[in-house]
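Exercise: predict the structure of this protein bound to magnesium ion.
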Amino acid sequence: MPELDFQFKDIMQMEHPELILKKARPFMDLMMEYQCALMEVETKLNVLNEEFAAKYQRNPFESIKSRIKEPLSIINKMKRKGFELSVESMEKNLFDIAGIRVICSFCDDIYAIASMLTGQDDIILVDVKDYIKNPKPNGYRSLHLILDIPIFLSSGKKHMKVEVQFRTIAMDFWASLEHKVKYKKDVEHSEEIVAELKECADVISAMDCRMQEIRNKIEGKA
Ligand code: GTP
Ligand code: MG
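Solution:
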């Protein structure tokens, strides 16, 4: 990739730096709006976590992490998918600019929390990819939801898209390591490596089910 011989101080030293900054304004405003949408969804998840803890004396979440996609990743994805490169097109076509990953203790908790969240009357469920019921061929498991959620700005209500990924600790363990293995080397993997990773995913998934069954037995559900 060509290195840009260009630094922020170069913009500041230009005759009219405000013109460049003005051009970037719509992009920065949209990023701020995605940040607000993340805050809304995180608050909703935290409320459910508090209530769950009060009702059942345990927290269903191990962790919640959120991120806004990096500007360069946004541009690369738009180019890869052949979308027009504009702020409007970004908002229209990309649904994972704001993303939240929720790590749950048990598989049942994923569906319980996902259904409580999507049942809230200000949330519209745009898309569901259930890679737990239908794992990817490589063994990847997670529940992905695309939500449409309103944020309230001084100018009024605005609908934003947020991607929420739900996983158990076990699913996250596999996905994190697989990501590291996969992205470290930019090469096609041999059939043997693909099969090994898939086998690991299946072993981990079987363990997840057993832990759920043990919990069900202790709670007298099975
Ligand atoms: P992209 O958003 O362009 O990736 O395409 P998509 O919307 O069809 O993808 P999908 O919803 O299936 O997956 C989106 C996200 O899920 C990725 O950015 C990853 O965070 C995660 N993911 C999906 N598949 C895998 C996988 O095989 N391994 C790992 N480690 N993560 C995955
Ligand atoms: Mg996606």
